[in-house]
# Entry
Amino acid sequence: MIESYIPIFLVFGFAILFSLAVVFSSSLFGPQRPNAEKMTTYESGVKPIGLANERVSVKYYLVAMLFIIFDLEVIFVYPWAVKFKSLYAQQGIQVFWAMIVFLTVFEVGFLYAFKKGGFKWD
Amino acid sequence: MEMKDLFYAMPLLIVGGGILLILLIDMFFKGGKKIIPALTFFILLGTAYYSLFTINQLPIGLMPVSEFGLFYGMLSFGGKAHLFYFLFNFGSAIAVLIANDYLKKIETEYSEYYILLLSSVLGMMLIAGSRNLVMIFIGLEQMSISFYALAGYRRKNILSNEAALKYFLLGSFATGFLIYGMAFIFGTAQSMMLIDIFSQTSVLVKNPLFMIGILLFLIGFTFKIAAVPFHMWAPDVYEGSPTSVTALMATVGKAAAFSAILLIFVSVAKMGPNSVFSSMFSVVAVLSMLYGSIAAIAQKDIKRMLAYSSIAHAGYMTIGLAAVNPSGIAGIIFYLVAYTFMNLGAFGIIALLESKEGKFLSIEDYKGLGTRQPFLAASLAIIMFALSGIPPFAGFFGKYYIFLAAIQSGDTWLALVGVLSSVISVYFYLRVVVYMYFSKSDDESAILEISQTGLLAVIASLVLVIAFGLAPGSLIRLISGLI
Amino acid sequence: MNLLPFYLIVSAFMFFTGVIGVMTRRNAIIVFMSIELMLNSANLTFVAFSSFLGNVSGQVFVFFVMAVAAAEAAVGLAIIISIYRNKMTANIDEINILKW
# Structure
């Protein structure tokens, strides 16, 4: 099994060696006459305006955080939905109520975020 | 699952329901904000009461593990778990009393404080009652995440921010170790249930992967109990967080982390090669005790000093783990109870005196307190005596039981190092007392009015510290009966 | 052929990359990313064991780790933002009023 990967490893090794060789040979053999214009980040591109670390409105972070939380809670619902039928046959209605309890807790959190203005853009 | 099962889970349901209730009150009733502290206090007190009086009424620790039983057998009820429930809830109720007026003083009164506090208590209860690795992880994270937020509660205060950041980064770092350890434990034991893991410990301890898992797990928890070599966050976090929050996480937070170690370690230690863990814990204990006691001497900030002293206390309790016998475990639980109320009292007094600008945080400020605030000074003196382990207070018997356990298991040298470290610690505890009674204050101005609820918290902890000191037998008998 | 050791080696490698990242990097966000890497290496270990043992509870644990990591990220980012507002930096070497 692992033996059949040997050609791939060989290719990987060759690729790494070759790329290293190319990178270093160019700096080894190429002529180097730097000047101020050449050293700028975008030598022949558009002149950069402003700073790269421009400040992003904190609203994006808030939305991103809320998204992460509410997005990830759903991963508990999917497996439950998939297995619901067989679980119901096995254990009865408590399978349903367990998810209702989870969702209630979850919705209270959602409501809290809503009431505190977590979803207001302005 | 039957309806009567729900009575077993009552403590968890009250606290969990309380969180939702307070969230809803906070959202929908403008005038409701006033009752939230009181509501939180009574929820915690009620749960503490219920847990205490059902310790022996429920089948101890272990309802039959039925696959479809209550919480699918993932939580245990009664016995030791309920003792810890009582400790967490009662300690947090005192912390609420401390917080109520303290938050007014520092002008950051939001109901989120109480929600986060309750949520951390629920997390602790899940840890203490868990019978499954998943539960330990979830409980620990619920507690820790609430604490991260609470540590940064004064969001305009740079010290509080910094404490939160450090606590958060190092706390989640520790969580990483913990989960990685759990992965190995799961992989080798082939189960998440603690019972299954315990039943095969004698075989598993020969498996190096399992031992790596346990080691990583313990590294994670050594972080949480702030024992050397993973203690570096504690002084900064304790100093920077609001005092009422420090009071909470230094006491019940540490007790919760210890409850998890007891859960896992007790059985592994019973069957495994005692020497490996025992010597490891001995090293941790000795380093923590000596480092905590010696570093505390140099401190100028009282919260920082108490943080180093709490590192030393973690060391004393670790002796009980190194001893690997039932009396060591009983000693740890007794020590946790004593330690919780001693430190709640100490931080309660600091919170009472502290001003918004941070006066009374430096030990120098306590000069001449004996004449300015006789009652608070006397209480602080008693608590300092108790912390340093002078009889007849609770701290003495905590140390006594733990050292006794060490001697019983043949680790007399550990007990000797413990006594040596206690002697060193007397110096810095009594320095506060000397400042209060034998130094004159430069500043004779009156202290702002003392909060009534905070005073109640101090009195409650003081009474317990003295009561457990005068009659330790009843508590230790209760604990020994549960192990 | 048993592939489990390979998964374990990869996850151990990830884990130590994370540990080294936490210890050497100085930007709070990057430290946090390294911690996430540690968590994910643990997840990989769990899934590998779970698949190897045919025991699904390891994969369930991974769900919980992911959900908790999201909650942790939310609180952590909030803390980093609040410190940035007060101090205008996310470099943990400059956050040193309390002795580190």
In short: Chain A has two domains: 3-39, 58-115. The interface with chain B takes residues 90-91, 94, 104-105, 108-109, 111-112, 115-116 of chain A (CB under 8 Å). The longest helix of chain A spans residues 6-29.
